[in-house]
Design goal:
Largest sheet: 4 strands, antiparallel
Number of helices: 5
């Protein structure tokens, strides 16, 4: 499982963004099925599926089980009763991808397109924020697919100092003259080569 990517991360690798989007996309289940008494809130959790056919078949199975339960209850109530339980309506006539609403027994039985694609609300928000980031940032970064770094604005000064150490521009072991460097100015000049993008309301820099 790839880690969640947050707007509070100091540094983000574009490859992690790509991997996280792929994982969330793989968790999507865009079709839901449920039943409830008309006019009332559902008294059971909706089930979500990757395909419309799976949602339809699940609903048909649940309707069949309900019919069996009703038949058993009717027989136990009066073994001599002539009344017969209802037969569940067929769902075979619905076109692939269409919403389903059937009234059977006391319930309205439905197949519907899931507003959040079956993701948890937090996952749905994360996916939307990551897609918006990709739409902005990938156009500025030629190597987005192979790995580009996004630096949080509040962390950029520290990043500039770490970069200077990594490329050997300063001696990371030395106190002087490192403690005399104006890192705010150094970060400001380095930032001129970067472009600002927004990730969930927070500014990041990418080159």
């Amino acid at each position: 499982m790839t880690p969640e990517i947050s707007k509070f991360d100091d540094v983000i690798d574009s490859r992690d963004v790509i991997a996280r989007i792929e994982e969330l996309e793989g968790n999507r289940k865009p079709w839901g099925a449920n039943w409830n008494m008309p006019g009332y809130m559902p008294d059971n959790e909706a089930a979500f599926f990757e395909t419309w056919e799976d949602a339809r078949d699940y609903l048909a199975e649940q309707m069949a089980e309900h019919a069996e339960e009703e038949a058993t209850a009717l027989g136990e109530a009066d073994e001599t009763a002539d009344a017969k339980p209802e037969t569940p309506p067929s769902l075979e006539g619905y076109a692939d991808g269409s919403a389903i609403t059937e009234y059977f027994g006391k319930y309205a039985w439905e197949v519907f397109a899931a507003e959040t694609d079956g993701l948890d609300p937090e996952e749905a928000e994360e996916l939307a924020a990551l897609k918006a980031l990709v739409e902005q940032a990938s156009g500025y970064a030629a190597d987005w697919e192979h790995g580009e770094t996004l630096i949080r604005d509040s962390y950029f000064e520290t990043y500039a100092q770490e970069l200077a150490e990594d490329i050997g521009a300063i001696n990371s072991e030395a106190t002087w003259p490192n403690n005399c460097i104006d890192w705010e100015q150094a970060a400001r000049e380095l930032r001129m080569d970067y472009t600002s993008v927004s990730f969930d309301g927070v500014d990041y820099w990418i080159r």
